[in-house]
Amino acid sequence: MENFKLLELAEQAKENAYVPYSKFKVGAALLTKNGKVYTGCNVEVASFGATNCAERTAIFKAISEGETEFEKIAVASSNDDETFPCGICRQVIVEFSKDLKIILGSTSKNIIKEYTIDDLLPHSFTSDDL
User: Fold this and answer.
1) Do residues 92 and 73 make contact, with C-beta atoms less than 8 angstroms apart?
2) Is 89 annotated as contributing to ligand binding?
3) 2, 11, 44, 55: which is the annotated catalytic residue?
4) Number of domains present in the structure of the chain
5) Residue 73 contacts residue 29 (beta carbons within 8 Å)
6) Percentage of the chain surpassing pLDDT 90?
7) What is the mean pLDDT of the chain?
8) Would you give the distance in Å from CA 99 to the centre of its chain?
9) Strand 26-32 relative to strand 37-41: parallel, antiparallel, unpaired?
10) Which residues are CB-contacts of 47 (< 8 A; sequence separation ≥ 6)?
11) What is the pLDDT of residues 17-68, one digit of tens each?
12) DSSP output for 88-123
C-alpha cells in the first residue's frame, strides 16, 4: 500500500477520536505484512493516565486479532502536519516491530515523510536487554 493511501486512512481514523480535554485528534493506520490495515484513534478520559494513543490503539487491535507482523504505520493529527508518536508509543512499536516504517504528514499539504523506529527511538530498550 502506498504511503499516501495509508496516511489517508489515518486521517479518516482521527475523526473518531474522543478528545474532550485536549481537543487534539490523532489517527493511526497500521499495515500488516499480509496487507490488512488496522486503524486507531486517541481516546482520552478524565484520568489522563488511562488515555490511549491512536498508535497503540491500532497496534493493540491488530495484536488482539492475532496479527504480529507489521510493515508500516501512518499517523495523522488535527494539526495537519507531522505529529510524532509519544515515547510510550515508540516503546510499543519497537516491542512488536524493529523494522516498522513510520509515515507522518498531511495529505492535504502533500507532506509525507517516512521514518524508522531507530530514527525515533535510538538505543531503545528491548527484550534483548533483559
Assistant:
1) no
2) yes
3) 55
4) 1
5) yes
6) 89
7) 96
8) 14
9) antiparallel
10) none
11) 999 999 999 999 999 999 999 999 999 999 989 999 999 999 999 999 999 9
12) HHHHHHHHH-TT-EEEEEETTTTEEEEEEHHHHSTT
**Pairing state between β 37-41 and 111-116:** unpaired
* Rounded Cα gap, residues 130 and 61, in angstroms: 26
Q: How far apart are CA 112 and CA 1, in angstroms?
A: 14
Pairing assessment for the beta strands 101-106 and 70-77 based on DSSP bridges = parallel
Mean pLDDT to the nearest integer, 5-16: 98
Domain range enclosing 63? 3-129
67 labelled catalytic: no
The SS3 of residue 97 is coil
> The dihedral of CA 17, 19, 23, 28: what is its sign?
negative
User: pLDDT (tens digit, 9 = 90+) per residue, 62-106?
Assistant: 999 999 999 999 999 999 889 999 999 999 999 999 899 999 999
Please spell the DSSP secondary structure of 41-76, one letter per residue. Answer: E-B--SSGGG-B-HHHHHHHHHHHTT---EEEEEEE
Q: What's the CATH number where 53 sits?
A: 3.40.140.10
86 is in an annotated binding site: yes
